[in-house]
Amino acid sequence: MSTLKKVLEAKQEGLLNIYCTAGYPKLNDLPKIVNALHDSGVDMVEIGIPYSDPIADGETIQKSNAVALSNGITIDLIFEQLKECTPDIPKVVMTYFNPVFKYGIEHFCQQCQSVGVEGIIIPDMPIGLYQASYEEMFKNYGLSPVFLITPQTSKERLKLIDDLSSTFIYAVSSSSTTGKATGGLSDGNTYLSGLKGLGLKHPILVGFNISTSDDLSLVQKHANGGIIGSAFIKYLSDKPSTEQATQQFVKEITKG
Amino acid sequence: MKYDVNEQGFYGEFGGAFIPEMLYPNIQELKSSYREILSEDAFKEELESLLKDYVGRPTPLYYASRLSTHYGADIYLKREDLCHTGAHKINNTLGQVLLAQRLNKTRIIAETGAGQHGVATATACALMGLECIVYMGAKDIERQAPNVSRMKMLGAEVCAVHSGSKTLKDATNEAIRDWINNPDDTHYIIGSAVGPDPYPDLVTQLQAIISKEIKEQMEGLPTHVIACVGGGSNAIGAFYNFLEDESVNLIGVEAGGMGVQTDKSAATLALGTKGVLHASMSYLMQTSDGQVVEPHSISAGLDYPGIGPLHAYLHDCSRVTYKNVTDEEALEAANRLMKLEGIIPALETAHALAYLEKMNFTTTDKIVINLSGRGDKDMNTYINANI
Q: Domain span at residue A185?
């Protein structure tokens, strides 16, 4: 059984997934960050593979993508760096369709498997295309697709997404790009409080616009866990030591 | 028609809707309703009346006699530059604003490169009393200052985009992000035949009036129709009703920039490979790692690393021939038209005119050039080039 599935089975609430952009802030920081996240007790890590045109991302992650690319990050280098990361924290990659398509989708899946990546988030991959062309391939390489759902996703579509999922579902806290809204999350948010009632088979992790320990506690209360991206990227931007900053960030965000 | 988009939103392997889940309801709403709305009698009447009395359609098909003598072939200019706002872009924005009203949207967003689509959107919004926000690359804001002022005068808010190459590609990204953040009240008017399904077809249908009129205005079929191609909306408009007339040679002219052998070019079909940009599968200029390359063209409207999916398809099935000309050649062609015909064309359009230099003519040739826009916005570039 995969580590990702093990973690999801063993810990059904209070999960924490942290996103980092490979190649940011420094070209070779990825192993330091992933290993520090593991040491800090984070449950899983989402590794962003930078893209020049990340349309679902707000300013913070856009900038981290641009910095990483100008640092010289490439997909092959990311796979090399992933070999230096601890195998003990489950890894999911997040990117856009074009880099994977250009790299070669099957080759990409092979590489993921060889470095222990178990999940993949491609927000702009059409579900119909996935079913028609990539479902079998992903399965063959033990790669679980993670789909986004939003407050506007219809019941029929939720069921389809639930059926196609094999690990967890990524609920977007509101229809927005990443790191956009501030202070939008409150206990009175009916979308959040309704998540458990959706009746989905797979655990739900909530991401987008979670920037404080209060936000995190809130989504952890209403779902199986939370995903933090922009807030972490912003935190790293002006810190001298990436490892220390990573540990400090996790300490602060989980203090609630 | 065999070149129309299929039910899944593809032209052969090109097209589709590679959108994040946040945009799915918006795209579905548009996809499920646009064909029906466009074919409603009331919609057609309202649009036709605006195109006639407000835009000034049909635009003339002008026989350019001195240009014809110069090249030794009959050359006709389809005068889209005489449209209200100075380019073909208004054909699309009026249609989409009427569509947006029927979808109960009150806020309009758009991207713009040269500013022509931005001005056409701001104009249509002013006419209908709708809020209008135009995203424009910071570099384009600098080089197309008169159009920025026009948009503001017309009541639009112009948002400078500082990401990436600070041009059309990045303005499009930012408009898409705006739509993700404002899914309920906002309609996104894409300016070219690009973007997720159903936009390429929607824009094609609204621009097809160009070739419909050419057909009505000409005796018999032309031998050639030539248009410049960035995203490709004026070109697809000029080609569409000739696609099944196989005897008509259709030629799209891309911006070669400083030459396709240099790294300063925007000739997507000459230099691009298959991939997804702005939510559709097409050709695009990219690195081996799938990162989109920053293009170069002297013309802001053609300074785009992608191309509409229908053009990619027409290229692959060889129905349309795609060529490219350099910045320099475009400037020379603009100068030639000014001196021979007394018309100052847009820099984009000058690329189509420049291709005449590369053709071998016979006396029976009847060539239509889509004169997609006028050159007021390019005065600085022309002045600096000592034309």
A: 13-253
Q: Is B210 helix (H, G, I), strand (E, B) or coil?
A: helix
Within a 10 A sphere around the Cβ of B136, how many other Cβ atoms? 31
Q: Which residues pair with A164 in a beta bridge?
A: none
* Paired tokens of A256: 């609630």
- Pairing between β-strand B131-137 and β-strand B74-79 as defined by DSSP bridges: unpaired
Q: Is the link from the previous residue into B58 a cis peptide, with omega within 30 of 0?
A: yes
* Overall number of domains in chain A: 1
Dihedral of the alpha carbons of B373, B377, B378, B379, in degrees to the nearest 10: 130
The DSSP-derived string for B35-70 is HHHHH-HHHHHHHHHHIIIII-PSPPEEE-HHHHHH
All structural domains of chain B, each given as residue ranges with its CATH number in brackets, are: 20-50+89-193 (3.40.50.1100), 58-86+204-384 (3.40.50.1100)
Contact state of B276 with A51 under an 8 Å Cβ cutoff: no
Q: Which of B78, B80, B105, B111 is catalytic?
A: B111
* Residue A4 within a domain: no
Q: Is residue A161 part of a domain?
A: yes
Per-residue pLDDT tens over the stretch A53-109? 999 999 999 999 999 999 999 999 999 999 999 999 999 999 999 999 999 999 999
Nearest-neighbour CA in chain B from A67: distance (Å): 11
Catalytic residue among A9, A13, A29, A46: A46
The candidate with the shortest Cα–Cα distance to A17, out of A168, A240, A177, A181, is A168
For residue range B169-225, what is the model confidence (pLDDT) as tens digits? 999 999 999 999 999 999 999 999 999 999 999 999 999 999 999 999 999 999 999
- Give me the CATH number covering residue A109: 3.20.20.70
Peptide bond into B198 cis (omega under 30): yes
Separation of alpha carbons A48 and A245, rounded Å:
18
